[in-house]
């Protein structure tokens, strides 16, 4: 351990270089966000600031605010349905391939990473006709967009779950459980899912991030989600739109940070035990 | 295989046949036993077919038909229009430059993180900030940069009032390809950090020690060990960043008003416009063009990595 502590910082940058790198990147990433904050507290008179707009957003009296809530609601529903799709369709498939069809692993990987290579705008061109039949079957509720979002989230969810799958010995675990009399379902639910907890949580977080940030498909299929509603409102009330954008950013960051802390706390605890 | 010695004369052939039959039967039984699992794969396969394969095929297919459903090459030749060629050029430059700059800057940022402990608070901060910012494209990002370096942005105004520097001396650059690069880097660098950091964590301290034992310095280490080991991950990140920028649409859509300097915006224009007939199919042709670009980039990537991957396995 002593050797490691001593040698790790040496092949990284020295303290001066490190500080310079940090300062440059902090400026690049923080200034736009500070500028957004400054924009929302501007008043008609240059140089004077007020929190009025934040107060009116908090009070719910800001113009067009209900539209933003519509978009937010739709995005929450979409995130939940997309996460369910990932958990019901992708997760069991990955486990079955891992256990029973190891030869298909490469095929599944290629299939899941493909959406990274197919621009969303290309998919939209083809999704328009598909969605005209989807809405005939499922109606035209905004949640149906989740079918398309499941595909865009596929690469991120796949990579998160796969890295978890790689870190445990799936075959040994499941054969042990089966030899103790467990059926497929209890192997899956009671042995594998708890062991894949980290990957599954990461997949859920990433899927939610993808859904809340999605604009292209919703915009071109004329659906309302958080992003399209922010664009719509920004034309009439840019201040409320920016405040919402800032709140969404802060909320997403806090959520991911908490999940990350929770997971790394568990990880270091279990690796010592 | 139970009574092998029952009839000595026929024994060899019988057992052979029987073993063969058993083998077949066992194989069949195994196949049958696997059937429920194979069926378990169908929902996912059907889903991917319906919402990934069919849309892609349809998108590309529409490029080969005209409004009345007749086969035509006209849409493909329409790609040679100067505006569309310029848009492809714009997309390539924008994606190429932001991928390269983003990948190098992201790698530098990862490099500065080497000393920090995986699982520590700094890591959590960087990880969650980068995950959020990597998905931060689109409308909100456009706002952020308008508020920063837009005509009335914080930096623009500060520079104008205090240093009498006019950022807009050469026109509204923020709304052009060059201007788009800045906001694009804002999501490209974090994406590089999340994809590249795990690879950097994979470097074992023992390798550095081995290098030091053999008399190598820091430069030798990075040139001979670290660099080559990280190269495939770096190229993978570069490819991901290129694909990410190339397919990005929302940021440009929110920043750039009427002009359509990149392909994604041209496709929207072709899809939405109902005044110009036959444009909807041109969208299909442009979609095909984008896919061709992606395929070429993928091939280049596999050629580049096949050499490094060979000795790593």
From TrEMBL, chain A:
<dbReference type="InterPro" id="IPR000515">
    <property type="entry name" value="MetI-like"/>
</dbReference>
<protein>
    <submittedName>
        <fullName>ABC transporter permease</fullName>
    </submittedName>
</protein>
<dbReference type="InterPro" id="IPR035906">
    <property type="entry name" value="MetI-like_sf"/>
</dbReference>
<comment type="similarity">
    <text>Belongs to the binding-protein-dependent transport system permease family.</text>
</comment>
<feature type="domain" description="ABC transmembrane type-1">
    <location>
        <begin position="72"/>
        <end position="264"/>
    </location>
</feature>
<keyword id="KW-1003">Cell membrane</keyword>
<dbReference type="GO" id="GO:0055085">
    <property type="term" value="P:transmembrane transport"/>
</dbReference>
<keyword id="KW-0813">Transport</keyword>
<keyword id="KW-1133">Transmembrane helix</keyword>
<feature type="transmembrane region" description="Helical">
    <location>
        <begin position="137"/>
        <end position="158"/>
    </location>
</feature>
<dbReference type="Pfam" id="PF00528">
    <property type="entry name" value="BPD_transp_1"/>
</dbReference>
<keyword id="KW-0812">Transmembrane</keyword>
<keyword id="KW-0997">Cell inner membrane</keyword>
<feature type="transmembrane region" description="Helical">
    <location>
        <begin position="239"/>
        <end position="259"/>
    </location>
</feature>
<feature type="transmembrane region" description="Helical">
    <location>
        <begin position="111"/>
        <end position="131"/>
    </location>
</feature>
<keyword id="KW-0472">Membrane</keyword>
<feature type="transmembrane region" description="Helical">
    <location>
        <begin position="20"/>
        <end position="41"/>
    </location>
</feature>
<dbReference type="GO" id="GO:0005886">
    <property type="term" value="C:plasma membrane"/>
</dbReference>
<feature type="transmembrane region" description="Helical">
    <location>
        <begin position="76"/>
        <end position="99"/>
    </location>
</feature>
<feature type="transmembrane region" description="Helical">
    <location>
        <begin position="199"/>
        <end position="219"/>
    </location>
</feature>
